[in-house]
Each structure stands twice: as structure tokens, then as C-alpha cells.
Write a structure and sequence with these properties.
Number of strands: 22
Number of domains: 3
GO molecular function, one term: structural molecule activity
Helix content: 10-25%
Structural class: alpha+beta
Radius of gyration: 33 Å
Shape: flat
Order of helices and strands: HEHEEHEEEEEEEEHEEHEEEEEEEHHEE
Largest sheet: 6 strands, antiparallel, barrel
Subcellular location: Bacterial flagellum basal body
InterPro entries: Flag_FlgI
Subunit structure: The basal body constitutes a major portion of the flagellar organelle and consists of four rings (L,P,S, and M) mounted on a central rod.
Family: Belongs to the FlgI family.
């Protein structure tokens, strides 16, 4: 019995010590979910093309002369002479074609492209993008796009009404671009790996470096990672390591993440996002609104029968003032649950909570960054 009691006491002491050390809001994530490889970033591509086959919803050649010039140049390249001919059919639209070239893309693979109208076309629905070259920032052609455009929005109109849902002047061509050129850099030619945090934070960067060094010490016999700043962690390649396998092992390591306390407010939509680490010092808040309503109800006064009087208008104004709220509540937010409960106890709508949070920040009681969108 004494041995069993001592064992329970030891377990209780260890549990209490671990509870004191572990943070209340400890969150863990894989490295691949919080950081990206610098050599594995996307590259943006852009091009100019034509969409044909529209049902009278394309560009007007008078208001968009570049569409007619592009169509004539395309037909001449196909061996068709267009001298002296004029066309007023609105079945062609000039578009800007954009795409993202994924990292390590090889020739022959396909990517999605986005088409956006440049002229006065009203809809790209039902159109087909003709062969368009896509260039990178260095001016080199990396892909060629062609295919049917898919537009999610639609437009219906009559003589007296028009109904439009979504955007009809932009669409996508799924798998419409074929990669023709490989990127000049190769992954295995690198001498190190540079991880970039999606949410820069010094604490998270240090923890990533410590976790990677622990893995490298057990696997290769020494540390290989160093946190340069709050965003970059540089990992040197061991001599006996394969770079691809090394990255596959590192990106699955579990790291405890940390983010600064923030409150994001969108006043247009009334959206409020409060981070888990937001704290509020004890503060008294009173919220109330004064509504003044002015109503004009003029009355018409008629003259007496057989009199020479005139019809007159007598003004009549009713003014009503109403004040709501006015309760005083004490808000003390040692954690997120208490903070939200304190705001809900005041009984105000999201727009009122936005005003309260701005006032708490001005008073210096909000221990977080206030981001207004």
C-alpha cells in the first residue's frame, strides 16, 4: 500500500509539472503546412490571345480596334487575306491569359489558365481560346494555351430588363496550357534548402531549426539547420544525404507553432476574427446608441365653402428620440473564451463589438494588434 501510494504521488507530481510547463494553447503542425521551399515557388505566366465562337457577345471593333487588328494578324498567319474586308460580327473577344507555372514542372504537363476580357465583350460563355503563347518575367515562352473557356456566370436580357449573376467576362480553361520549356534551375543542383515561413515568427523559426537539428543529429551526426530571421530557415545538405529524400523527411516533422495576437476587423461585412492569444486588461465598457427619427406629415387645409380662401399646406413634424443600451460591463479577457463571453454579455451586434474593440485598443487595454480591413 505504501509503495502504491508513493507511485500515485509521483505520477501526480509529474502531471502537475508537465501541466505547468505546457502552454495552454499549444498547437502543432507539420513543417510542410507552415513553411514552403524557396526553390519550389510558383512562376507567373502571361499572354495575349483571342476567344472565338461567341454568340454576339464579343468585342465591338469600333470601341476595341485592337481586337480587329489581332484577328487580321491571326488570319494572315493562316494564309487568309483580309485586305478590303470589314466585319461587324461580335463573335471575337481579346483576352488576357494568365497562369501559374508550378515548381519542378516538366515539358508536356498541363496547367489551368485564366482568361479575362480586355475589350467591351459582355460574355465569354461558349467561346474557345485559340493558340496563345504564355511568357514569363524573363520574356521566354514556357507554355502554350488553347481550349474551351468555362464561365461560371451568366447573363440574360430582354427589351426592358437584364439579369446578371456572377462574372461573365472572365473564365478558366482547365488543363488548357501545355508546358513547353523547363525551368532553368534544378532542385538537386542546390547545396542547401531554404524554408520560408508563411506566417513569419521568430519563435516558430527557432523551433523549426531545433526540430530539424534534432533529426539531423540522430541521422547524420550533427546539426544542419539555422534560423536566419523570422521567415527563413536555412538547412545545409549533408554529404551523404539525398536532397529529395532529406526534404521528404524534414517536411513531415512536427513543430509547435506560435503566432502573434491579432484581432482582424472587416467593417464592411461586420466580420470579427479574434486570435487565441488575444488578452484584454480589466476595463469597464458602456455601449449605447441614440436614434433620432424625424417624420414629416404635412396636412392640406381647404377653405370654407363659398369663401375666397385658398388651399394651403400646413407643415407638421414629429421628432422621436430613442436611446438604447447604456449598460456598463467589466471586460477582463485572460483567455479567448472569457473575452468572447464578456463581449456577448453587453448584448450588442457585431458593429457595436467593432466599436468597442476599437475603443479598448485606444484605451491601451487590448494586448493585441488590431487589423482593419
Amino acid at each position: 500500500m505504501k509503495l502504491f501510494f508513493r507511485f500515485l504521488t509521483l505520477v501526480a507530481v509529474v502531471a502537475m509539472s508537465l501541466a505547468d510547463v505546457a502552454p495552454a494553447w499549444a498547437l502543432t503542425s507539420r513543417i510542410k503546412d507552415i513553411a514552403s521551399l524557396q526553390a519550389g515557388r510558383d512562376n507567373q505566366l502571361i499572354g495575349y490571345g483571342l476567344i472565338v465562337g461567341l454568340q454576339g457577345t464579343g468585342d465591338g471593333f469600333r470601341s476595341s480596334p485592337f481586337t480587329e487588328q489581332s484577328m487580321r494578324a491571326m488570319l494572315q498567319n493562316l494564309g487568309i487575306s483580309t485586305q478590303g474586308s470589314q466585319s461587324s460580327a461580335k463573335n471575337t473577344a481579346a483576352v488576357m491569359v494568365t497562369a501559374n507555372l508550378p515548381p519542378f514542372a516538366s515539358p508536356g504537363s498541363r496547367i489551368d489558365v485564366t482568361v479575362s476580357s480586355l475589350g467591351d465583350a459582355t460574355s465569354l460563355r461558349g467561346g474557345t481560346l485559340v493558340m496563345t503563347s504564355l511568357s514569363g518575367a524573363d520574356g521566354q515562352i514556357y507554355a502554350v494555351a488553347q481550349g474551351a473557356a468555362i464561365v461560371s456566370g451568366f447573363q440574360a436580357q430582354g427589351e426592358a430588363a437584364t439579369v446578371t449573376e456572377g462574372v461573365t467576362t472572365a473564365g478558366r480553361v482547365p488543363g488548357g496550357a501545355i508546358i513547353e520549356r523547363e525551368l532553368p534551375s534544378r532542385f538537386k543542383d542546390s547545396v542547401n534548402l531554404v524554408l520560408q515561413l508563411r506566417n513569419p515568427d521568430f519563435s516558430t523559426a527557432i523551433r523549426i531549426a531545433d526540430i530539424v537539428n534534432g533529426y539531423a543529429s540522430a541521422r547524420f551526426g550533427g546539426p544542419v539547420a539555422e534560423a536566419k530571421d523570422s521567415q527563413e530557415v536555412v538547412i545545409q545538405k549533408p554529404r551523404t544525404a539525398d536532397l529529395t529524400r532529406l526534404m521528404a523527411d524534414i517536411e513531415n516533422l512536427i513543430v509547435e507553432t506560435d503566432t502573434p495576437a491579432k484581432v482582424v476587423i472587416n467593417e464592411r461585412t461586420g466580420t470579427i476574427v479574434i486570435g487565441s492569444d488575444v488578452r484584454v486588461s480589466p476595463v469597464a465598457v458602456s455601449y449605447g446608441t441614440l436614434t433620432v427619427q424625424v417624420t414629416e406629415t404635412p396636412q392640406i387645409i381647404q377653405p370654407e365653402p363659398f369663401s375666397r380662401g385658398q388651399t394651403a399646406v400646413q407643415p407638421q413634424t414629429d421628432i422621436t428620440a430613442e436611446q438604447t443600451g447604456g449598460r456598463v460591463a467589466i471586460i477582463d479577457g485572460p483567455d479567448l473564451r472569457t473575452l468572447v463571453a464578456g463581449l456577448n454579455n453587453i448584448g450588442v451586434k457585431p458593429d457595436g463589438i467593432i466599436a468597442i474593440l476599437q475603443g479598448i485598443k485606444s484605451a491601451g487595454a487590448l494586448q493585441a494588434e488590431l487589423v482593419l480591413q
